[in-house]
Amino acid sequence: MTHLQAGLSPETLEKARLELNENPDTLHQDIQEVRDMVITRPDIGFLRTDDAFILRFLRARKFHHFEAFRLLAQYFEYRQQNLDMFKSFKATDPGIKQALKDGFPGGLANLDHYGRKILVLFAANWDQSRYTLVDILRAILLSLEAMIEDPELQVNGFVLIIDWSNFTFKQASKLTPSMLRLAIEGLQDSFPARFGGIHFVNQPWYIHALYTVIRPFLKEKTRKRIFLHGNNLNSLHQLIHPEILPSEFGGMLPPYDMGTWARTLLDHEYDDDSEYNVDSYSMPVKEVDKELSPKSMKRSQSVVDPTVLKRMDKNEEENMQPLLSLD
What we know:
CATH 3.40.525.10, alpha/beta, five-stranded mixed sheet
């Protein structure tokens, strides 16, 4: 074991060897091979290339050198192409702070039975008058940056549960294809995290409709890890034990405290509120298309027209079959 593996338990070390092809005898060579590829992309500013940083990209791509480098390049390219998102990229930024305090994201205290961190989002908590969807994405990315410092989570990964209860049609109308693409690029294509499952619960019919729009842009591996549970919390419990879930998800623990993770990041500044005008944000969602990379994602050809959605039969939500089976 090298010093780069010092933060891993014996069980996680073995998991890294078996599942990720991590070999302590060749670890430094693996890292150097990725670092040597940096010169092939002079158009990108690689702001970090230290051993510990590159290692998280290797783990995210199971030590396939080129795939790890491509992810590393996309990580910095995404930040170059969306400069406004990362201008004030800290927990005390007013928009990020408000999103964090509303539980975007939340993190459960207990890991699941695979050692994965469980992130939770309560979609209806979004207050459109106080922060934007881009602020929520920034808060999630900032949180992942903090969490991925833990080498155990680099190996074991994350699980995400999104509760769509009381998420209104008006809120859903803000989830434009360009906004969704920005999130997919930032989370699926440009961040060194392993997501073992993304669980939708209590989703209304219009979230089903939006999912059909973004599904073509998701990798096959990602699609296989998305589970649409609807109101069937029993199917969620088959994958995540209710003993570690809060009562909102039919679990045995007390209701989730939305400020838990925000207090961890903000510490003594949690209660120090400052005014924030959402209109002052310098990257409106309607302009996101201009910032996206044509290389990493084709422009969506299908857009959900709200007037069409409104005409859909009200009973369709009840009759709609799950888009993914829960084996």
